[in-house]
Amino acid sequence: MKIVSTIPELKEVLPAHQSIGFVPTMGYLHEGHMSLVESARRENEFVVMSIFVNPTQFGPNEDLDRYPRDFERDEKLAREAGVDLLFYPDTATMYPLDMARVTVRQGADVLCGASRPGHFDGVLTIVSKLFNLVQPTHAYFGLKDAQQVALIEGYVRDYFVPVTIRRCPIIREETGLAKSSRNVYLTETEKEDASRIYKGLMDARDALESGHTFNEVKQKLTQTLSEIPDSRIDYVELVDYPTLGEATEASSEVLLAVAVQFERARLIDNVIWKRG
Ligand code: AMP
Predict the structure, then answer these.
(1) How far is CA 152 from CA 6, 157, 179, in A?
(2) pTM of the model
(3) Rounded to an integer, what distance in angstroms lies between the CA atom of residue 35 and that of residue 21?
(4) pLDDT tens digits, residue range 204-250?
(5) Where are the domains positioned within the chain?
(6) From atom 15 of ligand 1, which residue's Cα is the shortest distance away?
(7) What is the DSSP letter of 56?
(8) Which of 114, 118, 132, 257 shows a CA-CA span of 20 to 30 A to 1?
């Protein structure tokens, strides 16, 4: 595995005539990230992972400074997973002038976008930069961040970006808690309590399956989540997927998405209900 931090080095190492699978991350790797690498490994001759904690997707009062980092450990995990090239740039490399950024026009006013203004502009800006640098044939994103996947797919269509986006399933702890770099912020008790999020989502999906209305399901899920101790609900929403518009009787896929704020960590999770 090669590790590069600058653009000239990156250009030198990228192969010219092979399929390139790309896995962008913010590091502090876990099995969720590793599952994306596995998919990339299966489908491509060359696999690139990036590790970059992107400042423009963090709000002023968010956890940019304390976001967990451990490059040595990440490097080892990436190597073991079969990454060919690890791109580990600094902020000056990724934002040489910061004269231009990508803006989301639709789908950023709901779910995480509503509580994190500007977050998805930052995400699409960095993804766009990374795509231009790496020029992957395939790029791998986790459905853990379902809104992010939908907006990246929209960006790729709107900008005719020559890449195929692959949606990858959410990897969970045995308790059901979705794996996340931010889970290190949780105490053991909070981790146990947080596993109730997934149980609530599963019950909600079952309720949709057995014909309950979107409103009933939302209310019941809100009730379940409100009983989790020492936490506060940020949102509970059902939206059409992947348009992120209103869920209707015509929606063939409905995203049930939640965000719950614990003392030091804001957790997100979701399930997608497919009609029929
Ligand atoms: P992050 O490092 O948190 O920016 O995540 C990098 C990529 O890994 C994104 O595409 C995430 O959606 C994906 N990812 C993070 N956690 C999980 C998980 N538990 N299961 C599947 N994919 C994940």
Answers:
(1) 25, 9, 21
(2) 0.98
(3) 13
(4) 999 999 999 999 999 999 999 999 999 999 999 999 999 999 999 99
(5) 2-168, 181-271
(6) 32
(7) G
(8) 132
- 19-57 pLDDT, tens digit per residue, is 999 999 999 999 999 999 999 999 999 999 999 999 999
Q: Identify whether the C-beta of residue 103 lies closer than 8 Å to the C-beta of residue 121.
A: yes
The pLDDT score that the predictor gives to residue 150 is: 98
CA distance 59 to 52: 16
For 250, other C-beta atoms within 10 Å of its C-beta total 7
Task: Answer yes or no: 17 catalytic.
Answer: no
Please check whether residue 138 is in contact with residue 130, taking contact to mean a CB–CB distance below 8 angstroms: no
pLDDT score of 276: 84
Inter-residue contact 89 to 5 (CB < 8 Å)? yes
The answer regarding whether domain 2-168 maps to CATH 3.90.550.10 reads no
The CATH architecture one would assign to domain 181-271 is 2-Layer Sandwich (3.30)
Please determine whether the domains at 2-168 and 181-271 fall in the same fold group of CATH: no
pLDDT in tens, 70-88: 999 999 999 999 999 999 9
Structure tokens at 53: 């904690």
